[in-house]
Amino acid sequence: MAESGIVLTGEGEMLAFGRRLAAFVRIGDVIALEGGLGAGKTTLARGLLEGLGLEGEAPSPSFAIVQPYDIPEVSLPVAHVDLYRLDGPEEAEELALDEYLTDSLLIVEWPDRLGEQAWPHALRFHIAIEPGGARRLTADVPGAWTERWSQI
Predict the structure, then answer these.
(1) What is the pTM of this model?
(2) Structural domain boundaries of the chain?
(3) Which tens digits make up the pLDDT trace of 82-140?
(4) 72: preceding bond cis by omega (within 30 degrees)
(5) Which residues does UniProt call coiled coil (predicted)?
(6) What are the pLDDT digits (tens) for 114-125?
(7) Beta sheet of 66-69, edge-to-edge order
(8) Domain spanning 2-142: which superfamily?
């Protein structure tokens, strides 16, 4: 798995990166977003959803846990998931998240709540807040993403 880092300054750049990323996602992909509160996970997810055609607001799924989007609202089905409120992997079993992979893109905030072994094929972003407020995205790029990643 290759690792790559990107520095983004401001919410606009985070949204723009998400929109660029949207051109390369496929059904069955998992985009895993890690980072502390306020790091920009939901902003990146919103940019990705905008890039897939979402015109309305993309609410944070913090309370719903899973926020689905379907065609024609977006160009391919998406499940935006926020696992922050889960206490452990056993609580996620009833969500049946892997079932979404048969016909959707899965965007997961706080994937660490399911343990390190969850979705080894995921494109993982760790978002850190830099001094001055910029965000550093460190991407763990799995083999299935190597060719696509080089085009982003």
Answers:
(1) 0.91
(2) 2-142
(3) 999 887 777 777 788 888 889 999 999 999 888 766 788 999 999 999 998 999 999 99
(4) yes
(5) none
(6) 876 678 899 999
(7) 2-8, 135-141, 123-129, 30-35, 105-109, 78-82, 66-69
(8) P-loop containing nucleotide triphosphate hydrolases (3.40.50.300)
